[in-house]
Amino acid sequence: MEKYGDVTIAIDIMAINKIPFVITVSRHIHFGTAKLICNKSKTTIMTLIQQVVRAYHARGFRVRNILGDGGFECIRNSLADMGIMLNVASRNEHVPEVERYIRTVKERVRAIASILPFRQYPPRLIAEMVYNAVFWLNTFPHKDSVHATISPRTLITGLGIDYNKG
């Protein structure tokens, strides 16, 4: 906890079929979140960030830094009031952790969509496919995580998976 108690979160906005999601992933812990948003306003983004920060604080972690692109510059002062430093990537640059996470989520959503017997997908189904992909990414331990056998989901939420349930 001493070494990994201060958490850095990478954040970005992902769109699938023009449906926007706020995606976050933490360094070292590799816990990811996804939330469907109706708009990209400062209030909406701050509400989601506060929810994520509360989840980390509930387990004893302190969010100290948030990495994002220029679209998050508008929330710098609000984050400073919370004691969080915002680090914005340069123009035409991205935060690699969250960009890789977004590519992984999109790949898994495409895999789910490929086995469904539909030609078009309602927005709610797309959102649920994203939530499913993020759930399973958090369920298994990451090879570079802070713990070799405890999943990111268990570290942050305290909830595990009962593999014996049928």
Structural summary, described in words:
The chain is an alpha/beta fold and 166 residues long. It has a single domain, classed as Ribonuclease H-like superfamily/Ribonuclease H (Nucleotidyltransferase, domain 5, 2-Layer Sandwich), CATH 3.30.420.10. 40% of the residues lie in helices and 21% in strands. Strands 3-2-1-4-5 form a five-stranded mixed β-sheet, sandwiched between helices. Helix 3 packs across helix 4 (123-139). The longest helix is centred in the middle third of the chain and has 20 residues, at 96-115. The radius of gyration is 16 Å and the shape is globular. The model has no long low-confidence stretch (mean pLDDT 90).
Brief account:
The chain is α/β, with parallel strands linked by helices and 166 residues long.
SSE inventory with pairings:
Layout: E1 6-16, E2 19-26, E3 32-36, H1 42-58, E4 62-68, H2 76-81, E5 85-88, H3 96-115, H4 123-139, H5 152-157
Parallel strand pairs: 1-4, 4-5
Antiparallel strand pairs: 1-2, 2-3
Helix pairs in contact: 3-4
